[in-house]
Fold:
Amino acid sequence: MGDLIDLVLLAMLAITALQMIFLKDLFAVVMLFGIFSFLSALIFINLDAVDVAFTEASVGAGISTVLMLGTLAITGRKEKKSAHSSFLPLLVVCITGAALIYGTLDMPPFGHPNNPIHEHVAPRYIEESPKEVGLPNMVTSVLASYRGFDTLGETVVVFAALIGVLALLGVRRQEENDVPESGFKAHHVLHVVARFFIPLIILFALYVQFHGDFGPGGGFQAGVIAAAAFILYTLVFGLSRSFSVVGPKFLQVLASIGVLLYASVGLFSMYKGGQFLDYSKLATDPIVGQHYGIIVIELGVGITVFAVMLSIFYAFGSQAERSNIQ
Amino acid sequence: MLILDIISSILLIAGVFFGFSGALGLFKFPDFFTRMHAASVTDSIATILILFGLILQTSFDINTAKLLFILAFLMITSPTASHALAKSARHGGLLTLPEVQAKQQERTH
Amino acid sequence: MNFILDYYNYWIVVFLMMTGFYIVISANNLIKKIVGLNVFQTSVFMLYISMGKVNGGTAPILVDGVTLYSNPLPHVLILTAIVVGVATTSVGLALIIRIKRAYGTVEENEFEKQDDAI
Structure:
């Protein structure tokens, strides 16, 4: 049964991607991209990758789609006809595709438990990580403890994206009164429902943040969900009200605090006599030390991702307001 | 229990049927507002039927509570989204099909 | 039939990769190129996750009574890759907004002409 679901979902994904090539209306292309992202999240669940599905659904179908729509509001909705013929790209694509399919014939068959990828390294982590780190979620224990340095690098990459977007766009403070207020003035239903749901979404983000040790979840997903709550607030109530609730300067400070928190856990474990990001030295019992370390760094990651996603949305939103577009 | 399985299957199949009819309506109906109506109405009933079918499949533990939360959330947000879409279209100036036809008649006479 | 079932995942992934690649190299509008890039990225993620799946296994979260788990290591890699992907996308979209301000258009043939004229 799982095979049938897999086949059908992949076929739907292929049809969605194919249709994206031919559409000229960019709004429809971005919506199809949201559907594509959500379908791939479903496929990831079918392939037992629950953490990845969570992240793909929140990041791809949530933040990416919103940012692309924000860009579309500034650049315009229709794509013009290309001047080049499409024969050469089609040729290149066909040759590359044929080479890749010829390459996949050499790969081990899908799903067999004796594939080379499942030997040696993976069984070691599956068996030892509950004893060494003590968490049920093996993905979190590998991500936060065994490969904690890579996750620090990833957080810094997200922070660098914030710096890049702020250097390119900047967030403009609402000082002049010539730009009309954004937000949905006459949508009373949206006002009521949004006001009811935003605290619940933030609560859910906190649940995901701290529950990442026991089930799918963790810092990234939680940061993105919390940012989505504030993006909803901005869309319904307007950018200036959102600036007075969570200001851009505060978010920049928050983003740096998240990365600093992560790095200082590493430095603190060096101070305690271990290596950088060696959580076993944080408490007398090494497993308890691992738990402390993982909770604090996941908090750092969640804070940074929340601040970065919301800041990037503010930057895009200020640009859209500047163009006098509602 | 067999009787729970049978009821759950009936609910799931009914939910799928309504979802499919909503998708069919999206293609067949002539106008934006009628398509909106087809999609949102069938979406609500399909959500209720499918989620109740799934609740019967659990053994009434924490997962039942999670499914009930999901049901409550979808019941509030999905009609709100449809309402927001239709209202934005109407305020943006989109006309229903009878109005478009009346306008064309006005222009030719 | 078994052969097709064994490799169907990989072939669809290659098809999606090529679709994304085609959109990137042939689209005229810059936003559509970014969409194609994201399609390409997501299909690569699907390749890695398909390689990690074990038939009969379950999600890599420890539960009592389950001994066979899917491989958690590709999941960790792809989790990082997704977040880096969205960071790249946002910087790319910010660049597109600046291009629009500088050239007045985001269609490739139009601002290529303006670039040649400079």
Remarks:
- Residues 2-117 of chain C form a domain with the Helix Hairpins fold (CATH 1.10.287.3510).
- The two ends of chain C are 59 Å apart (CA to CA).
- Chains C and B do not touch (no CB pair under 8 Å).
